[in-house]
Amino acid sequence: MTFFLRHVRQEFPNDFILMVYDGAPCHSPGALDVPDHMMLLTLPPYSPELNPSENIWDDLREKFFGNTVFDSMDAVTDRLCIAMNHYVDHPEIVRSITAFPWICSFNEC
Fold first, then answer.
1. Which of 29, 78, 79, 98 is the S-S candidate for 52 at Cβ 3.0 to 4.6 Å?
2. 82 close to 64: Cβ distance less than 8 angstroms
3. Is 0.70 topped by the overall pTM?
4. Closest alpha carbon to 22 in 3, 58, 48
5. CA 29 to chain CA mean position, Å
6. Please, are residues 68 and 79 in contact by the beta-carbon 8 Å criterion?
7. Where are the domains positioned within the chain?
8. Cβ proximity of 52 and 43 under 8 Å
9. How distant, in Å, are the alpha carbons of 15, 57, 60, 61 from that of 83?
10. Which among 65, 103, 93, 100 has a CA at the least distance from the CA of 81?
11. Is the dihedral of CA 40, 57, 75, 92 positive or negative?
């Protein structure tokens, strides 16, 4: 997560960023190096309607990782790359999973 925050800082050096994140302990501000122009806001617990990325993870686990035993971490990584490329190639699937009404009201879906 710290790596991601550094990347965002580099991409948007002149903007103030309010980043919303889940409450995972490894994502807590005390565990992260948060840039000065960024503020972190924790989602409330048990609020999947506010975190559409959770639905992507559920779909990914079901379609690409269900009932599978991998021989190595490289095999897991390979399968994850296949899954991510699938979503890149099919944005309509991502839209159908994540386009909650409150998101679409701010942006055309």
1. 98
2. yes
3. no
4. 48
5. 17
6. yes
7. 2-43, 49-104
8. no
9. 32, 10, 7, 9
10. 65
11. negative
- The overall longest dimension of the chain from CA atoms, in Å, is 46
CB burial of 70-96 (b: ≥16 within 10 Å; e: otherwise) equals eeeeeeeeeeeeebeeebeeeeeebee
58 Cα distance to chain centroid: 12
* pLDDT tens sequence across 4-54: 888 899 999 999 999 888 777 776 667 788 888 898 888 887 777 777 878
Q: Which two tokens stand for residue 34?
A: 């948060």
Phi, psi of 21 (to 5 degrees): -140, 165
C-alpha span between 58 and 56 (Å, rounded): 5
